[in-house]
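WARN retry 2 of 3 for item q-0093 after timeout on previous attempt; input resubmitted unchanged.
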Amino acid sequence: MKASDIKHPVVRVLLEQMKISEGIELHHDGDLPARSGMGSSSAFTVGLINVLSALNAKMISKRELAQQAIHLEQELLKENVGSQDQISAAYGGLNLIQFLPNGDFTVQPVILPSKRMQEIEDHCLLFYTGIKRIASQVAGQYISTLHDKESYLKILHGLVFSGIEVLKNGGNILDFGELLHQAWTAKKSINNCITTSYVDEIYDKALKYGAIGGKLLGAGGGGFLLIFAHPEKHEKIKRALGDLLHVPFKFETEGSKILFYE
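OK item q-0093 returned
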């Protein structure tokens, strides 16, 4: 089989681009469903670039890894995707990612005590709505109208720094949940495709049973819903949202890495 015969676009393009002609055996195992807002597509792209680069005897930096993934998805595959997923998958950890007018980006780690990180983790619940969607298509519905929504974008931008301040100053962690709620409210106002009546019903039910805030992850439209609530409220919320799959998770700090190289 030639690389051009492969149906998966990322695999096909990378094998052609990296001029890998010898036979390879490639296995991919994913813990979460595709098209769910978790950045799984970009994580796959980043991981494949990393492993194929290693196969070509080249260990690349996290920055170069992110840049190559962004170039592939945006320029070569022409997808309506941002750049945050590729950077997050490459770097790992909790970061302030800033995008510059010239197309470049900076990654500043948000360093928190392990106790604070555990506190954040303990307040989060992750639910799968069961709604699959293609992020590129969802984003494509509102990219062209973003210039008319500048006020909401400014709100979201400001909330990023407010959130970091809450996490770093050691104040009440519940304030972070309030900021998540404000951010979700602002994001929903950008376009009606970002949420659905079903998602709104789930979110409102979570608030009724003790949630402070939350958001759909990714471009919107479906996928995973993150809920922020005091740990004492978690069981009530899980029972109230019993039809949804609850997915326990932990924060990851290393990003994409080669586990074995010979």
